[in-house]
Amino acid sequence: MAPRFVILHGYSTWLGWCIMALRWLGAANGDGWNLRVMQSESLTPGAVKTEDEHRRDVCTVGRWIRERGYVPSTDGNISVRLDSRRVLTSPTGISKGMMTPDDLVITDLEGKKISGRRNPSSELPMHLLIYRRRPDVFAVCHAHPPVATGYAAAGVALDRALLSECVIALGSIPVARYGTPGTAELTDAIEPLIQRHDAILLANHGVVTYGQDLLTAFFRMETAEHFARVSLVTVLLGKQVLLSGEDVEKLLAARARYGIQGAPAGTSRPVTAEADEAAVTDRITLSRRELEALVEDAVRKDRTRR
């Protein structure tokens, strides 16, 4: 019993440090400061606004994602579809928390600059592809929130039915294969996922979210990072209790009641308790001794054949 207690004690200490790190991460992201910022700056829902209102909104969301620690340095980009021909977007080479309305750039849907003293981000083609494939989308937000981006870097999708609110808001969040930022590799990687998802992890890169207005796109980014944090805690605890398929269907049916507009091709279903159990039953567990015996037997048979 003594060794087991030591192991558990060590695990508990390690887990405690991990949770403390997560708490520190929240503090480092300026959660208290962020609350004051968001209280002092408002952003109303809806896509029907004047150009000046859209400019102020993009700058506001830029400050929000910067203060939350979602984008270091000059990373990330934000855009809004102004009409059927024009897109308003954040410029390249500037902190998203330092933008002013005059810094923003207007392009056409092919990415050609129409107006603005700065240049658009090299990742604008990703936004434009989403607008072309999703006529219901009027805003796109791309950032690098640390925990969700950690999942992207690990190639692990956020696709398990862990949180009811996340199932309602996003269904599941897949990982797009890696593509070099600012190139056709990236747009090619996300294209198959756009129709059925409202948030996508970009392998070894970050996260992109989108919606019917900028507030929705920002909220989906926030939800993706929250989901990633909770998911990470369950991994650290060594246990995940998933919702059932029936529970998930009820939650997805509730989207209409809450006025949530989702992907036109149908909201993607996360992995449920039943699916997870079926996957587990397909696994074979061996002890080290059993594995060594199998390997020795295979080697012996191979030598006999020779």
Write a concise keyword list for the protein shown above.
306 residues, L-fuculose-1-phosphate Aldolase
Short description:
By secondary structure, the protein is an alpha+beta fold.
CATH superfamily of the largest domain: Class II aldolase/adducin N-terminal domain
User: For this structure, what is the CATH class of the largest domain?
Assistant: Alpha Beta
Helix content: 40-55%
Q: How many distinct beta strands?
A: 8
**What series of H and E elements makes up the topology?**
HHHEEEEHEHHEHEEHHHH
Strand order across the largest sheet? 4-3-2-1-5-8-7-6
SS field, number of helical segments = 11
* N→C terminal distance: 49 Å
| Approximate strand percentage | 5-15%
The radius of gyration computed from the alpha-carbon positions, rounded to a whole number of angstroms, is 23 Å
Provide the CATH topology of the largest domain.
L-fuculose-1-phosphate Aldolase
Question: What is the CATH architecture term of the largest domain?
Answer: 3-Layer(aba) Sandwich
Q: Main sheet, how many strands, which sense, barrel?
A: 8 strands, mixed
Assign the structural class, choosing from mainly alpha, mainly beta, alpha/beta, alpha+beta, or little secondary structure.
Answer: alpha+beta
Arithmetic mean of pLDDT: 87
The tally of structural domains comes to 2
Coarse morphology? elongated
Pick out the low-confidence regions.
Answer: 1-9, 32-39
